[in-house]
Amino acid sequence: MTKRILALPGDGIGPEITRQACRVLEACRDEGLDIDIEEAPVGGAEIDRSGVPLAPETLEKAKSADAILLGAVGGPKWDTMPDISKRPEKGLLALRKELNLFGNLRPALLYPQLVEASSLKPEVVSGLDIMIVRELTGGIYFGQPRGRETREDGTRYGYNTYIYDEHEIRRIGRVAFEMAQKRGKKLCSVDKANVLEVTILWRDIMNELAPEYPDVELSHMYVDNAAMQLVRAPKQFDVIVTGNMFGDILSDAAAMLTGSIGMLPSASLNEHGQGMFEPCHGSAPDIAGQGLANPLATILSVAMMLRYSLNEADMAARIEQAVGAVLDQNLRTADIAYTGTRQVTTEEMGDAVLTAFNAA
Ligand code: NAD
Ligand code: IPM
Ligand code: MN
Protein backbone atom coordinates (compact mmCIF):
# COMPACT_ATOMS: atom_id res chain seq x y z
CA MET A 1 0.00 0.00 0.00
CA THR A 2 1.17 3.53 -0.77
CA LYS A 3 2.78 5.15 2.27
CA ARG A 4 1.89 8.76 2.90
CA ILE A 5 4.66 11.22 3.75
CA LEU A 6 3.86 14.72 5.00
CA ALA A 7 6.63 17.27 4.40
CA LEU A 8 6.58 20.36 6.62
CA PRO A 9 9.37 22.72 5.47
CA GLY A 10 8.73 25.46 8.06
CA ASP A 11 10.85 28.61 8.34
CA GLY A 12 14.33 30.04 7.72
CA ILE A 13 16.53 27.40 6.10
CA GLY A 14 13.68 24.88 6.56
CA PRO A 15 12.40 25.10 2.97
CA GLU A 16 15.94 24.94 1.47
CA ILE A 17 17.01 21.82 3.33
CA THR A 18 13.61 20.10 3.07
CA ARG A 19 13.70 20.58 -0.72
CA GLN A 20 16.96 18.65 -0.95
CA ALA A 21 15.66 15.91 1.37
CA CYS A 22 12.45 15.62 -0.68
CA ARG A 23 14.52 15.20 -3.84
CA VAL A 24 16.17 12.22 -2.16
CA LEU A 25 12.75 10.84 -1.19
CA GLU A 26 11.62 11.30 -4.79
CA ALA A 27 14.69 9.39 -5.97
CA CYS A 28 13.67 6.55 -3.62
CA ARG A 29 10.21 6.66 -5.19
CA ASP A 30 11.81 6.39 -8.64
CA GLU A 31 13.57 3.28 -7.35
CA GLY A 32 10.27 1.66 -6.47
CA LEU A 33 9.49 2.97 -2.98
CA ASP A 34 5.69 3.27 -2.92
CA ILE A 35 5.18 6.73 -1.38
CA ASP A 36 3.08 9.79 -1.84
CA ILE A 37 4.55 13.13 -0.64
CA GLU A 38 2.33 16.00 0.43
CA GLU A 39 3.54 19.38 1.69
CA ALA A 40 2.04 21.85 4.20
CA PRO A 41 3.18 24.99 6.00
CA VAL A 42 3.96 24.94 9.73
CA GLY A 43 5.43 27.34 12.28
CA GLY A 44 5.96 30.96 11.34
CA ALA A 45 4.90 30.30 7.74
CA GLU A 46 1.54 29.04 9.02
CA ILE A 47 1.20 31.95 11.48
CA ASP A 48 1.63 34.32 8.55
CA ARG A 49 -0.98 32.38 6.56
CA SER A 50 -3.66 31.58 9.11
CA GLY A 51 -2.62 33.04 12.48
CA VAL A 52 -1.74 29.78 14.22
CA PRO A 53 1.51 27.73 14.04
CA LEU A 54 -0.24 24.42 13.35
CA ALA A 55 -3.49 24.39 11.35
CA PRO A 56 -6.05 21.78 12.45
CA GLU A 57 -6.10 20.27 8.95
CA THR A 58 -2.30 19.91 9.01
CA LEU A 59 -2.49 18.15 12.37
CA GLU A 60 -5.07 15.75 10.91
CA LYS A 61 -2.83 15.07 7.90
CA ALA A 62 0.09 14.48 10.26
CA LYS A 63 -1.93 12.01 12.33
CA SER A 64 -2.89 9.98 9.29
CA ALA A 65 0.53 10.12 7.58
CA ASP A 66 2.90 7.17 7.79
CA ALA A 67 5.79 9.54 8.42
CA ILE A 68 6.50 13.27 8.66
CA LEU A 69 9.56 15.15 7.44
CA LEU A 70 10.07 18.50 9.17
CA GLY A 71 12.61 21.20 8.28
CA ALA A 72 12.73 23.74 11.10
CA VAL A 73 10.50 26.37 12.64
CA GLY A 74 10.96 29.77 14.22
CA GLY A 75 12.83 32.99 13.61
CA PRO A 76 13.27 36.60 14.70
CA LYS A 77 10.07 37.70 12.99
CA TRP A 78 8.01 35.80 15.57
CA ASP A 79 10.35 35.95 18.60
CA THR A 80 8.65 38.98 20.07
CA MET A 81 5.17 37.43 20.12
CA PRO A 82 4.22 37.87 23.78
CA ASP A 83 2.21 34.65 24.08
CA ILE A 84 4.68 31.75 23.83
CA SER A 85 1.82 29.33 23.21
CA LYS A 86 1.20 30.99 19.83
CA ARG A 87 4.79 31.02 18.55
CA PRO A 88 6.17 28.85 15.71
CA GLU A 89 7.89 26.46 18.14
CA LYS A 90 4.49 25.64 19.62
CA GLY A 91 3.49 24.07 16.29
CA LEU A 92 6.39 21.65 16.56
CA LEU A 93 5.73 20.89 20.23
CA ALA A 94 2.05 20.29 19.47
CA LEU A 95 2.91 17.81 16.70
CA ARG A 96 5.19 15.92 19.08
CA LYS A 97 2.58 15.86 21.84
CA GLU A 98 -0.49 15.13 19.72
CA LEU A 99 1.21 12.25 17.93
CA ASN A 100 2.71 11.00 21.19
CA LEU A 101 6.22 11.03 19.72
CA PHE A 102 7.93 10.43 23.05
CA GLY A 103 11.02 8.63 21.79
CA ASN A 104 13.57 10.98 20.23
CA LEU A 105 16.66 9.36 18.72
CA ARG A 106 19.58 11.70 18.03
CA PRO A 107 22.61 9.86 16.65
CA ALA A 108 25.90 11.74 16.90
CA LEU A 109 28.01 9.89 14.37
CA LEU A 110 31.31 11.29 13.15
CA TYR A 111 31.91 10.48 9.50
CA PRO A 112 35.64 9.64 9.22
CA GLN A 113 35.90 12.19 6.38
CA LEU A 114 34.87 14.94 8.82
CA VAL A 115 37.38 14.34 11.59
CA GLU A 116 39.08 17.63 10.73
CA ALA A 117 35.78 19.53 10.84
CA SER A 118 35.22 18.57 14.46
CA SER A 119 36.06 21.13 17.09
CA LEU A 120 37.91 18.44 19.07
CA LYS A 121 41.25 16.74 18.42
CA PRO A 122 41.14 13.75 16.04
CA GLU A 123 42.26 11.28 18.72
CA VAL A 124 39.41 12.41 20.99
CA VAL A 125 36.64 12.09 18.37
CA SER A 126 37.60 9.70 15.58
CA GLY A 127 35.23 6.75 15.55
CA LEU A 128 32.61 8.62 17.59
CA ASP A 129 29.18 6.95 17.49
CA ILE A 130 26.76 8.01 20.23
CA MET A 131 22.98 7.59 20.31
CA ILE A 132 21.15 10.10 22.48
CA VAL A 133 17.68 8.93 23.46
CA ARG A 134 15.76 12.01 24.54
CA GLU A 135 12.30 11.92 26.13
CA LEU A 136 10.24 14.29 23.97
CA THR A 137 6.68 14.70 25.22
CA GLY A 138 7.10 15.36 28.93
CA GLY A 139 9.35 16.96 31.50
CA ILE A 140 9.70 20.68 31.98
CA TYR A 141 8.61 21.41 28.39
CA PHE A 142 5.06 20.29 29.10
CA GLY A 143 4.67 20.27 32.90
CA GLN A 144 1.81 22.18 34.52
CA PRO A 145 1.52 24.67 36.12
CA ARG A 146 3.48 27.08 34.00
CA GLY A 147 3.23 30.77 33.36
CA ARG A 148 4.38 34.35 33.75
CA GLU A 149 2.65 36.52 36.31
CA THR A 150 2.99 39.64 38.42
CA ARG A 151 2.79 39.75 42.20
CA GLU A 152 0.73 42.38 44.01
CA ASP A 153 3.89 44.40 44.66
CA GLY A 154 4.54 44.54 40.91
CA THR A 155 7.33 41.93 40.85
CA ARG A 156 7.15 39.81 37.71
CA TYR A 157 7.85 36.09 37.96
CA GLY A 158 7.82 33.04 35.74
CA TYR A 159 7.61 29.33 36.50
CA ASN A 160 7.62 25.90 34.87
CA THR A 161 7.13 22.47 36.31
CA TYR A 162 9.59 19.64 35.83
CA ILE A 163 7.42 16.53 36.14
CA TYR A 164 7.60 12.91 34.98
CA ASP A 165 5.51 9.98 36.10
CA GLU A 166 6.92 6.48 36.27
CA HIS A 167 5.13 5.33 33.11
CA GLU A 168 6.70 8.08 31.04
CA ILE A 169 10.15 7.24 32.41
CA ARG A 170 9.71 3.49 31.96
CA ARG A 171 8.68 3.71 28.30
CA ILE A 172 11.63 5.91 27.29
CA GLY A 173 13.87 3.71 29.42
CA ARG A 174 12.78 0.66 27.44
CA VAL A 175 13.51 2.42 24.14
CA ALA A 176 16.99 3.20 25.41
CA PHE A 177 17.76 -0.26 26.83
CA GLU A 178 16.60 -1.88 23.58
CA MET A 179 18.73 0.54 21.58
CA ALA A 180 21.75 -0.32 23.76
CA GLN A 181 21.11 -4.03 23.18
CA LYS A 182 21.34 -3.45 19.43
CA ARG A 183 24.52 -1.38 19.77
CA GLY A 184 27.45 -1.42 22.18
CA LYS A 185 25.40 -2.61 25.22
CA LYS A 186 26.26 0.44 27.33
CA LEU A 187 23.60 2.81 28.60
CA CYS A 188 24.30 6.02 30.52
CA SER A 189 21.28 7.64 32.14
CA VAL A 190 21.77 11.36 32.62
CA ASP A 191 19.96 13.18 35.42
CA LYS A 192 20.32 15.72 38.21
CA ALA A 193 19.42 13.34 41.02
CA ASN A 194 21.59 15.27 43.49
CA VAL A 195 19.14 18.18 43.35
CA LEU A 196 15.84 17.30 41.63
CA GLU A 197 13.34 14.80 43.06
CA VAL A 198 11.87 14.10 39.64
CA THR A 199 15.23 12.78 38.52
CA ILE A 200 15.65 10.65 41.65
CA LEU A 201 12.54 8.88 40.38
CA TRP A 202 14.11 8.78 36.90
CA ARG A 203 17.20 7.05 38.32
CA ASP A 204 15.08 4.61 40.38
CA ILE A 205 13.07 3.55 37.32
CA MET A 206 16.21 3.04 35.21
CA ASN A 207 17.62 0.86 37.99
CA GLU A 208 14.35 -1.10 38.19
CA LEU A 209 14.45 -1.79 34.44
CA ALA A 210 18.09 -2.89 34.41
CA PRO A 211 17.53 -6.55 35.49
CA GLU A 212 15.31 -7.04 32.43
CA TYR A 213 18.30 -6.20 30.23
CA PRO A 214 21.16 -8.13 31.85
CA ASP A 215 23.36 -7.77 28.78
CA VAL A 216 23.30 -3.95 29.06
CA GLU A 217 25.67 -2.16 31.41
CA LEU A 218 23.75 0.73 33.01
CA SER A 219 25.50 3.76 34.51
CA HIS A 220 24.26 7.11 35.83
CA MET A 221 25.75 10.55 35.42
CA TYR A 222 24.78 14.05 36.50
CA VAL A 223 24.01 16.30 33.57
CA ASP A 224 26.70 18.86 34.33
CA ASN A 225 29.35 16.16 34.34
CA ALA A 226 27.83 14.63 31.17
CA ALA A 227 28.21 17.95 29.36
CA MET A 228 31.85 18.04 30.46
CA GLN A 229 32.51 14.38 29.55
CA LEU A 230 31.01 14.90 26.08
CA VAL A 231 33.75 17.36 25.25
CA ARG A 232 36.48 15.65 27.31
CA ALA A 233 36.16 11.99 26.27
CA PRO A 234 32.98 11.50 24.20
CA LYS A 235 33.86 7.98 23.06
CA GLN A 236 33.12 6.64 26.55
CA PHE A 237 29.42 6.88 25.61
CA ASP A 238 27.35 4.41 23.62
CA VAL A 239 23.68 5.20 24.36
CA ILE A 240 22.64 8.15 26.54
CA VAL A 241 19.08 8.37 27.88
CA THR A 242 17.79 11.58 29.39
CA GLY A 243 14.82 13.89 29.79
CA ASN A 244 13.47 16.45 27.39
CA MET A 245 15.48 19.55 28.27
CA PHE A 246 18.78 17.87 29.14
CA GLY A 247 18.52 15.92 25.88
CA ASP A 248 17.94 19.11 23.91
CA ILE A 249 21.08 20.70 25.32
CA LEU A 250 23.36 17.65 25.23
CA SER A 251 22.42 16.82 21.63
CA ASP A 252 23.49 20.25 20.37
CA ALA A 253 26.81 19.79 22.18
CA ALA A 254 27.21 16.27 20.73
CA ALA A 255 26.37 17.62 17.27
CA MET A 256 29.41 19.82 17.24
CA LEU A 257 31.66 16.82 17.83
CA THR A 258 30.52 15.47 14.44
CA GLY A 259 31.72 18.60 12.65
CA SER A 260 28.52 20.61 12.54
CA ILE A 261 24.99 20.69 13.82
CA GLY A 262 24.13 20.45 10.13
CA MET A 263 25.12 16.75 10.30
CA LEU A 264 22.76 15.60 13.09
CA PRO A 265 19.47 13.95 12.07
CA SER A 266 16.70 12.77 14.37
CA ALA A 267 13.73 10.45 14.62
CA SER A 268 10.80 11.07 16.96
CA LEU A 269 8.75 7.91 17.37
CA ASN A 270 5.56 6.81 19.07
CA GLU A 271 4.57 3.35 20.24
CA HIS A 272 3.28 2.40 16.78
CA GLY A 273 6.51 3.21 14.97
CA GLN A 274 4.94 6.27 13.40
CA GLY A 275 7.44 9.06 13.35
CA MET A 276 8.50 12.57 12.61
CA PHE A 277 11.98 13.05 11.18
CA GLU A 278 13.88 16.30 11.39
CA PRO A 279 17.38 17.69 11.69
CA CYS A 280 18.34 18.56 15.28
CA HIS A 281 19.21 22.12 14.31
CA GLY A 282 16.88 25.08 13.99
CA SER A 283 15.88 27.47 11.24
CA ALA A 284 19.30 29.22 11.22
CA PRO A 285 17.96 32.69 10.37
CA ASP A 286 21.53 33.99 10.13
CA ILE A 287 22.18 31.99 6.94
CA ALA A 288 18.65 31.53 5.53
CA GLY A 289 18.15 32.09 1.82
CA GLN A 290 21.87 32.17 0.99
CA GLY A 291 22.46 28.59 -0.13
CA LEU A 292 24.78 28.10 2.85
CA ALA A 293 22.74 25.60 4.84
CA ASN A 294 23.96 22.03 5.14
CA PRO A 295 21.11 19.74 3.99
CA LEU A 296 22.79 16.52 5.16
CA ALA A 297 21.11 16.36 8.59
CA THR A 298 17.74 16.51 6.85
CA ILE A 299 18.78 14.02 4.17
CA LEU A 300 20.05 11.69 6.91
CA SER A 301 16.68 12.17 8.65
CA VAL A 302 15.09 10.71 5.51
CA ALA A 303 17.35 7.68 5.98
CA MET A 304 16.09 7.40 9.57
CA MET A 305 12.51 7.60 8.24
CA LEU A 306 13.17 4.71 5.89
CA ARG A 307 14.77 2.66 8.65
CA TYR A 308 12.43 3.35 11.56
CA SER A 309 9.03 4.04 10.00
CA LEU A 310 8.98 2.57 6.50
CA ASN A 311 10.89 -0.66 7.12
CA GLU A 312 13.30 0.05 4.25
CA ALA A 313 16.69 -0.48 5.88
CA ASP A 314 18.48 -1.17 2.58
CA MET A 315 17.29 2.08 1.02
CA ALA A 316 18.27 3.91 4.24
CA ALA A 317 21.79 2.48 4.05
CA ARG A 318 22.00 3.53 0.41
CA ILE A 319 21.29 7.16 1.38
CA GLU A 320 23.87 7.04 4.16
CA GLN A 321 26.43 5.59 1.75
CA ALA A 322 25.64 8.35 -0.76
CA VAL A 323 26.36 10.94 1.94
CA GLY A 324 29.66 9.19 2.66
CA ALA A 325 30.50 9.17 -1.05
CA VAL A 326 29.88 12.91 -1.34
CA LEU A 327 32.14 13.56 1.63
CA ASP A 328 34.76 11.33 -0.01
CA GLN A 329 34.59 13.67 -3.01
CA ASN A 330 35.61 16.48 -0.61
CA LEU A 331 32.40 18.42 -1.21
CA ARG A 332 31.42 20.54 1.80
CA THR A 333 28.86 23.16 2.68
CA ALA A 334 30.36 26.16 4.48
CA ASP A 335 29.79 24.78 8.00
CA ILE A 336 32.02 21.73 7.37
CA ALA A 337 34.43 23.22 4.83
CA TYR A 338 38.13 23.56 5.60
CA THR A 339 41.34 23.96 3.62
CA GLY A 340 41.63 21.36 0.91
CA THR A 341 37.89 20.78 0.51
CA ARG A 342 35.55 22.27 -2.08
CA GLN A 343 32.73 24.47 -0.81
CA VAL A 344 29.31 23.87 -2.38
CA THR A 345 25.84 25.34 -1.94
CA THR A 346 22.86 23.64 -0.33
CA GLU A 347 21.51 22.68 -3.73
CA GLU A 348 24.86 21.48 -5.08
CA MET A 349 25.16 19.25 -2.03
CA GLY A 350 21.70 17.85 -2.82
CA ASP A 351 22.75 17.30 -6.46
CA ALA A 352 25.87 15.41 -5.36
CA VAL A 353 23.94 13.16 -2.94
CA LEU A 354 21.42 12.34 -5.68
CA THR A 355 24.16 11.51 -8.17
CA ALA A 356 25.86 9.22 -5.64
CA PHE A 357 22.54 7.64 -4.67
CA ASN A 358 21.62 6.95 -8.29
CA ALA A 359 25.06 5.54 -9.03
CA ALA A 360 24.88 3.02 -6.19
P1 NAD B 1 19.94 27.07 15.03
O1 NAD B 1 20.18 25.61 15.14
O2 NAD B 1 18.90 27.52 14.08
O3 NAD B 1 21.31 27.79 14.63
C1 NAD B 1 22.48 27.74 15.45
C2 NAD B 1 23.71 27.98 14.59
O4 NAD B 1 23.93 26.81 13.78
C3 NAD B 1 23.57 29.14 13.63
O5 NAD B 1 24.81 29.80 13.51
C4 NAD B 1 23.21 28.48 12.30
O6 NAD B 1 23.61 29.20 11.16
C5 NAD B 1 23.95 27.14 12.41
N1 NAD B 1 23.23 26.09 11.67
C6 NAD B 1 22.08 25.47 12.05
N2 NAD B 1 21.70 24.59 11.12
C7 NAD B 1 22.62 24.63 10.13
C8 NAD B 1 22.77 23.95 8.88
N3 NAD B 1 21.89 23.03 8.46
N4 NAD B 1 23.83 24.27 8.11
C9 NAD B 1 24.73 25.16 8.52
N5 NAD B 1 24.64 25.85 9.68
C10 NAD B 1 23.59 25.59 10.48
O7 NAD B 1 19.62 27.59 16.50
P2 NAD B 1 19.15 29.05 17.02
O8 NAD B 1 19.85 30.11 16.26
O9 NAD B 1 19.26 29.00 18.46
O10 NAD B 1 17.60 29.10 16.66
C11 NAD B 1 17.05 29.74 15.52
C12 NAD B 1 15.55 29.48 15.45
O11 NAD B 1 15.34 28.09 15.21
C13 NAD B 1 14.81 29.80 16.74
O12 NAD B 1 13.58 30.37 16.38
C14 NAD B 1 14.60 28.46 17.39
O13 NAD B 1 13.48 28.41 18.24
C15 NAD B 1 14.42 27.59 16.21
N6 NAD B 1 14.75 26.16 16.40
C16 NAD B 1 13.93 25.27 15.78
C17 NAD B 1 14.22 23.92 15.84
C18 NAD B 1 13.34 22.95 15.13
O14 NAD B 1 12.50 23.36 14.34
N7 NAD B 1 13.46 21.67 15.36
C19 NAD B 1 15.37 23.48 16.53
C20 NAD B 1 16.18 24.44 17.16
C21 NAD B 1 15.87 25.77 17.08
C1 IPM C 1 14.91 20.90 18.99
C2 IPM C 1 14.48 22.33 19.21
C3 IPM C 1 13.11 22.37 19.87
C4 IPM C 1 13.24 21.73 21.25
C5 IPM C 1 12.46 23.76 19.99
C6 IPM C 1 12.45 24.50 18.68
C7 IPM C 1 11.08 23.65 20.52
O1 IPM C 1 15.44 23.03 19.95
O2 IPM C 1 14.19 20.16 18.33
O3 IPM C 1 15.99 20.53 19.46
O4 IPM C 1 13.66 22.41 22.20
O5 IPM C 1 12.94 20.56 21.36
MN1 MN D 1 17.30 21.93 20.24
Automatic annotation (TrEMBL):
- Residues forming the Isopropylmalate dehydrogenase-like domain are 4-353
Q: Where is this site: Important for catalysis?
A: Y141, K192
| SMART domains xrefs | Iso_dh
Recorded GO terms, molecular function? 3-isopropylmalate dehydrogenase activity; magnesium ion binding; NAD binding
Which residues make up the binding site for Mg(2+)?
A: D224, D248, D252
Protein location: Cytoplasm
Q: How does it assemble?
A: Homodimer.
- Protein's UniProt name: 3-isopropylmalate dehydrogenase
Native source organism of the sequence = Kushneria avicenniae
User: Gene encoding this polypeptide?
Assistant: leuB
